[in-house]
Amino acid sequence: MTDSVHAESGTAPGAAEAPSTEGTDLGVVFGPGSPAVSDESGTAPVQLLTPEGERREHPDYSFDLDDEVIKGFYRDLVLTRRIDAEATALQRHGELGIWAQLLGQEAAQIGSGRAMGPQDFVFPTYREHGVAWCRGVDPLHLLGLFRGVDQGGWDPNENNFALYTIVIGAQTLHATGYAMGMQRDGVVGSGDPDKDAAVVAYFGDGATSQGDVNEAFIWASVFNAPVVFFCQNNQWAISEPIERQSRIPLYQRAHGFGFPGVRVDGNDVLACYAVTQAALRRAREGSGPTFVEAYTYRMGAHTTTDDPTRYRLSEDLEHWKLKDPIARVKAYLVRGGLADDAFFAGIEQEAEAMGEHLREGCRALPDPSPLSIFDQVFVEQTPELAAQKEQFAAYLASFEGAH
Amino acid sequence: MNAAVSTDELTDWLRMMTLIRGFEERVKNLFSQGLVRGTTHLATGQEAVAVGASAALQPDDWVLGTYRGHHHALARGMSPASAFAEILGRSTGVCRGKGGSMHLTDVSHGVMGSYAIVGAHLPIAVGCAWSSKIQDLGRVAVCFFGDGTTTIGAFHEAVNLAAVWKLPAIFVCENNRYSEYTPIDQVSPVAHAAADRAAGYGIPGVVIDGNDVAAIRDAVDVAADRARRGAGPTIVEAETYRHGGHSRADPATYRPEQEVEHWLQRDPVAAVRRQLEATAEPGRAEQVETEASDQLDRALEEALAAPEPDLSTLTDDVYARAL
Fold first, then answer.
1. Which of B29, B40, B136, B272 holds its CA 20 to 30 A away from the CA of B101?
2. Is A44-364 assigned to CATH 2.40.50.140?
């Protein structure tokens, strides 16, 4: 590709350097410079808030906003966890067919979600409940999909938040296409901070093994598309651990595609915010994609149909509990005297109200008309589909006569 | 770094490269005469990659090629007569005349197929390599593909899996600079479309002169040694050039004349011929060329005399066991 692409790659602060030779015989045979296996050095994630709730400095990334913002993050984190817990319970009560839990990944989602501007656009997986919250989607709308009463009850254009994608990795292609559309709309690299926009594509560690993601990376890199590839590495592709999916730390995957990759502590909301913001800035100004690996852990099951005790050790879970994304923010706020009991009680009250909203709202979601399955397939209904709808309506009517 | 190349080796290489080139010339003529249906993709100019790689392999290793794959098959020892017959749709062809130009397959020579779908064979090569690993066969699977394939999802899935499982696979990219009509440097995010991608999988990737048989042999030799030791796959990117168009339908007018001229000056067959002439007795090269030409003439004659497959065989060979 062009020199500009190559010049840009590797310019992101904190992005890893090109990997060195493994020390195999290849260096001897082919001479120096043959790119080979990466090393493990420099894989420590960007961290700005420790699990103990202490702020940390980083040479390339910083969090400059005031403590009120952090208190806002805390509220987001708690409410997001509550949305997740309520939905899980609703599934157990038979009100939802299935639910994909985000427990443990709240910071990755709130940090990245809050880093976006209203003009940016999100392409989520089926687990981005925290991002949906940041984009202003009513959590009740999320439940409709999992209850099976709609195909995603929100308008993607209202909050610049696309519908959940179930097919692993497919949304990275949609994201890249949308980002290329932004380029053609002239909202990339215009220099106007309110106008310039970017796309954030969410996906998990398992998706990195998908061919679709490869194709999205290639296109985004070659066309310098404004995409932030935000990978929540929660260590598990359902029951498959990350060690069985990649031979290198995931953020280094970007090396093969000519754009920067950075690993961030995915349980650190401040670091996730700072890293995503930097990647978004880079994308909006027209410098192309960035791969962000948010290193986190799926504390719950893959979905409510999965039992992780069958394939992973409880001690791993205990280890990650010590890195809880919410506890560290609370520790920071309490230790610094930045929030009092009333603050925490107020949020708890809000969470209770959220729970009630979801429980009552979920049960009240209307069952769809069987004929609605034909709606919203195409922008303009095709004659074939209209005929099928008519046929199906007649079929349904024939039962009514039988009653 | 090249191990010394003996006169005998040079003789073998020139023989095979001349055979491949002459084969492709005859195939081109057959298509022009309307004796074959469909299309064909000639490897003229890319002979060195197949010959060099084959020189590094053991008889029981596997190779998988693309729709531009006559050279891979011939270099592994497929008989020219059965290859011609296959392309001509005759019952004596390697696939009994039902595969055609793009599907030359000869398991007895380790040619595990040629594939018309871009990138589709990389996962199959990984499957071969896996079978070698779990059965402890010590065999390697070499997968040839073009530069355009690196942008296909299957490339990613195959290379990553081979890397993670440390499979005895060698991914040989014949970078002929064009994916059909698109220059690869316009659609690759990295300078070396295949080799630079290796960094993303934690495996070695090397770039070599794809018109230098010895360089390819040495690279594949090292990669095969790694593979057999259980150290995993390697990406070998061989920089080469197709002398003609993408397929017989393509006059390749999109390529700058100077570029074509530059590469014609670097013709791999001529290079081997010069090397041989420098070391062998006078007349050796001509003798090899005459023998190859005679062999091809006999093979083509044999193929043209063979019957077309009987209609009753239409559903044979679809499944291993008839349904």
1. B272
2. no
